[in-house]
């Protein structure tokens, strides 16, 4: 999702899309659909037409504009149907999205092409972020009125709201076959003063179920796993096809918005003494959290403990930004320049 996309979504894309659908619907009323369908299914060349229709229907996600339709669907779906209130624990809960490997997603090794994982991660992240942070997006978009984001001089920051993708890393474990279904489990793992880090697991479809659901979008559940001393928890990783880690940045114009401002505007942060943007790192410093009861009341200490746990992985991911300094412009030469890239 590029910076500025959301600033155009409501004033441009929604009206243009609605106008296009209305016009198409109006024109469709003048067509004799019974005759068209009958000729399509029974006329000369029907076999080729039906096979082509089946092929297009089973590969729609990989067709031109398929990715755009999936992205816009996630925006509209969650802005229209998100519950007004989510429990604050939902901040670290999974968003689950199902998909299937189309034939056009399959490479010469007869499994899902590695490159297509990144398009799927785009969709899964969009579902997660628009569902969790939906209330905060319009609030920050109207920052002139709400005064949620101030610069270092205390002045209200102006500009269009947008989300920028900074980087994506993907680790592949098990292949996904042609036409095989799978699930994408995405959740927030951590944040710092600039970046929001999101993990996405590609999971075998139907093998893993959560213990509960936060809102109206519900499915089957499983019982919580209880263990006694000496017993290990189930190895959920055996159901993972791949894992991706992404980082997002929130912007008002060119001004970077601290992720906790988005969380607070969406009602997902418990109150923290001194606030969430204190200390040298603007993330609460290195306060000793003491003993934390995982079954206790959800408070700022539990949020901070979860953030720190995820940050141990996110910091290594962030360190890869420095690899751009390895580029020397071919100072010692290059192999060659090749066609058809």
From TrEMBL:
InterPro entries in alphabetical order: HotDog_dom_sf (IPR029069), THEM6_lcsJ_thioesterase (IPR051490)
Pfam family membership, one: 4HBT_2
Protein origin, superkingdom: Eukaryota
Protein family according to the UniProt entry: Belongs to the lcsJ thioesterase family.
Entry protein name: Capsule polysaccharide biosynthesis protein
Origin species: Podospora australis
